[in-house]
Design a protein that fits this description.
6-stranded mixed β-sheet, 8-stranded mixed β-sheet, alpha+beta, 309 residues, elongated
Length: 309
């Protein structure tokens, strides 16, 4: 009798475990359905036929209310697609899970990496996305997507602002873009072409460059020797007459000699510059401001202690 009770208890426990495990899985037809839905998006296959979405499906993207209905989803995606030369979810780093709730609802969660290239300026966007899908009878009846659209919105706003620029403003913006591009490619010939011969650069109020040639030797050679992966990012800009105020971020790794030392440490430094341009679109002056101490501290340098009084 005791053996029968133990066997019965084991069966009950095993059955309970089976039921509990079946409520969570990373392999199921429902997950395959979601993967098909993502593949359709990547291929821009929005047609009703063969869609993973139910005819009555509702899509909530960064929203709790006012869902996009199935009949409107094609127009929604096509309107967004017009902003990109290419876009889609990457195959790598995808994670899926299916869960069955206490109420018996079946949901598939997905963690994805979405990349796109803006059609207007070629800017690359990389964005993590979380999506969750409610599935009934082999169809998606709800999809919820969550992501941070800030970078895309800012870029689209900048594009619209540039469209409204005057001819002179566009010339100055092109001048800044050419300078950033020359920096990132370590293209000294292109940098010199973007400047007047008597170009002046000040750094925190001190003149350190008196010609376009010195800009290459006193700056570009020094930084690319010390930081072969040196890069400049234009954070934002403001045009004021013939001047452009820019905020920038530079990054690099000190794998070469800099200030007589190699530390193999990375740096990230923020600063601002006021660029002055001539009527022909060439830059004649840069007044740069940034914190040298932050740079040196990242490299491991320290300030000497002040003398005792």
């Amino acid at each position: 009798m005791r053996k029968i009770l133990l066997i019965g208890l084991a069966i009950v426990l095993f059955t309970a475990c089976e039921q509990k495990d079946s409520r969570y899985t990373q392999q199921s037809p429902e997950i395959d359905l979601v993967k098909k839905h993502i593949d359709n998006y990547n291929k821009k296959n929005y047609n009703m036929n063969g869609s993973a979405l139910a005819d009555s499906s509702k899509s909530f993207f960064n929203a709790k209310e006012n869902p996009i209905l199935r009949k409107d989803i094609i127009a929604y995606h096509e309107a967004n697609d017009a902003n990109y030369s290419k876009r889609g979810f990457l195959e790598k780093d995808q994670e899926f899970e299916m869960v069955v709730t206490d109420d018996g609802e079946t949901w598939v969660n997905a963690w994805l990496d979405w990349q796109a290239t803006l059609a207007t300026n070629g800017k690359a966007i990389d964005m993590p996305v979380h999506m969750t899908f409610k599935i009934i009878d082999g169809k998606i009846v709800q999809e919820h997507g969550y992501w941070d659209p800030t970078e895309i919105l800012m870029e689209l706003q900048n594009i619209e602002a540039e469209k409204a620029m005057s001819v002179d403003e566009k010339l100055l913006k092109k001048g800044i873009d050419d300078i950033v591009k020359a920096w990132n490619a370590n293209d000294q010939a292109a940098m010199k072409a973007a400047m007047t011969d008597n170009f002046i650069r000040t750094e925190n109020g001190n003149v350190i460059v008196n010609s376009s040639s010195e800009y290459a030797t006193n700056l570009m050679d020094v930084f690319f020797t010390g930081f072969p992966d040196f890069q400049v990012a234009l954070d934002d800009y403001q045009i004021m007459g013939n001047k452009v105020l820019i905020n920038w971020t530079v990054t690099g790794t000190n794998t070469g000699e800099f200030q007589g030392v190699t530390t193999n440490k990375p740096i990230t430094t923020h600063g601002a510059s006021i660029w002055t341009f001539e009527k022909d679109g060439k830059a004649s002056r840069e007044d740069a401001y940034y914190d040298n101490l932050t740079l040196f501290q990242q490299l491991g340098y320290s300030m000497p202690a002040p003398p005792k009084s």
